[in-house]
Amino acid sequence: MSRTRTEEFQELRPLLFSIAYRILGSVSEAEDAVQETWLRYEASPTEPRSVKAYLSAAVTRVSINVLRSARVRREAYVGPWFPEPLLADPYQDPERSAEMADSVSTAALLLLERLSPLERAVFVLREVFDFGFPEIASAVGRSEAACRQLVVRARRHMAEGRPRFEASRKERTELASRFFQALREGDVDGLQELLAAEVTLVGDGGGKAPQLARAVVGARNVARLLADVFPRMARAAVTFEPHEVNGEPGAVFRDRDGKVLHTMVLDVRDGRIRTIRNVINPDKLRHLGPVADPWAVHREVRNTP
Q1: What is the pLDDT at residue 8?
Q2: How far apart are alpha carbons 144 and 40 in whole angstroms?
Q3: Which of 6, 63, 160, 191 ranks highest by number of CB atoms within 10 Å?
Q4: pLDDT surpasses 90 at 73
């Protein structure tokens, strides 16, 4: 029995979202791109030979167009811009699990920001999802030779920014467990021991939430700040649960009513935490559930002894 277009689309939706998210770095924009892809498929009078190829190409083209306009907005963004946090990737490919996990990390998505929209799309299709060059060429409207050149350039840009040594998943999990325990206890020395000497603590508030005026740099400075702030947050009934965020160790923080306050991601390299990134902008957290009022929580924490 033949399947309906709706059934075919729903089966491929996780793949389409995963492609769009890696091109866009935004959950909300990726969901919009997937919806636009459905509308185009629904309105198409012809039946494609390969529904997967057709829909993948369509969502790629939509995402490229969205990214071109999004880049202009990001240039005017207040403070550091980070991708919207993703707690679980809906698409899984056991044969490419390592590539899938690496490509969705915050660090990798920030590296992808260095690429042009076309380079980014071609890199994602080829390196992450292992599409063939004929499919990629059809998706982006370029020749196969041009797509090969785009991949070469994208690989070079990505390689320039990647760390030489990355921790294993087990090492990262163990380090994160010790970090969050020290965070709960307000243990300055315990925190400092886990941080790289040049560690950076930085937040993305987008001008819509309290955020640091500038990044905090250095193990002692970061450890002292965390050990001072988080016990006071706990006394103000802010809680957190460790959770993978973008495939990396992290946590989701909530206010006293259980509303999402912010996410934290730990970038672990060479056995130490190199970067701590917080997404505080409420607009980037709405897909995770009801969002807290960050200003109200800030005032309460500030006034908590």
Answers
A1: 93
A2: 25
A3: 63
A4: no
| Whether residue 53 is found in the same domain as residue 99 | yes
Q: Which domain holds residue 280?
A: 169-302
pLDDT one-digit tens code per residue, 160-197: 877 655 668 888 999 999 999 999 999 999 999 999 99
For the chain, the domain total comes to 2
Question: The CATH number of the domain where 116 resides is what?
Answer: 1.20.140.160
- The answer for residues whose C-beta is within 8 angstroms of residue 258's C-beta and 6 or more apart is 290
Between CA 113 and CA 124 the distance in angstroms is 12
